[in-house]
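Appendix C: a fully annotated inverse folding record. The material below is reproduced so that readers can follow the format used throughout the book. The structure is listed first as tokens, followed by the designed sequence.
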């Protein structure tokens, strides 16, 4: 006679049911652990903050789109510029407050040298906010 059978027949069949009692016990223990730890996680100091009338800053940083096309020509906000004019514009942009962000778009067919020259000119001018624009 096997466990779980109440008749006198000698069947050698296995019990094909999942015993749910241990799973329920584990779930109850996890529930109690989460209930106990939740107040510890949400512990915060209650403070009544004063109210002040202040307007947010309206000065936003300007972005400059610099493009290097496949022929190596520079474009400042979609306007073609020469190398000398580019250096002058970079120097003027570095003096602005807040300093503008420089978004560089380089064609994948352009030689890396042209992009490196652009980065060096931006560094010499004093621009610090640089970013490369790519397509996903």
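Designed amino acids, in order:
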């Amino acid at each position: 006679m096997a466990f779980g059978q109440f008749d006198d027949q000698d069947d050698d069949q296995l019990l094909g049911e999942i015993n749910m009692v241990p799973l329920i016990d584990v779930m109850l223990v996890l529930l109690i652990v989460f209930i106990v730890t939740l107040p510890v996680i949400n512990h915060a100091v209650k403070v009544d903050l004063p109210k002040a009338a202040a307007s947010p800053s309206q000065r936003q940083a300007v972005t400059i789109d610099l493009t290097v096309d496949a022929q190596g020509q520079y474009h400042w906000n979609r306007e073609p510029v020469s190398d000398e004019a580019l250096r002058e514009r970079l120097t003027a942009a570095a003096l602005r407050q807040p300093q503008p962000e420089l978004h560089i778009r380089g064609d994948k067919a352009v030689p890396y040298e042209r992009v490196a020259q652009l980065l060096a000119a931006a560094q010499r001018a004093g621009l610090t906010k640089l970013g490369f624009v790519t397509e996903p």
